[in-house]
Amino acid sequence: MSAQHTQTTFLWGFGLGLASSALLFYIWHTESLLQLQQNWLSQQQQLQQQNQNSVKNQLETIDLLMKSYSISDGTEDQDMRAELIRNQHLVLLQQVQQQAGVDISDLLDPARPFNSAQLYAALLRIKQQHEKNSARQQLDQRVLPPQNTPTVAAG
After folding, report:
1. Domains contained in the chain, number
2. Cβ atoms of 84 and 93 closer than 8 Å
3. Mean pLDDT throughout 139-150?
């Protein structure tokens, strides 16, 4: 075997090894990107599900507060703040209010009492805001085309 032939064989072997390693790297890189995309999609779906569950939970809390503190004989003029504090439900009212972003500072002002009718009206405003926000999100999802993740071209 001549030195020229040995050198050509070496270069061919080196080139094939380099091409093989590049191909393996490309396959590994493509699989990694695909896995990252799938992870991202599953995270987005989980976030969307959590958001939907959160809104559902908030609406259930509002409904329970509305049912528990509904207007009845004898509660028309009763200060509902004391009742909410005694039952530890004032925190729930504040949480649903903050989540909806509705201003009910007139009820949360400790210097001013509020009755069951005012509480019911505030809860109704909060509930309507939650439903409005949820309806807008659903409409936005229907208007916007589904976002496809970019596919990795093989080849």
Report:
1. 1
2. yes
3. 69
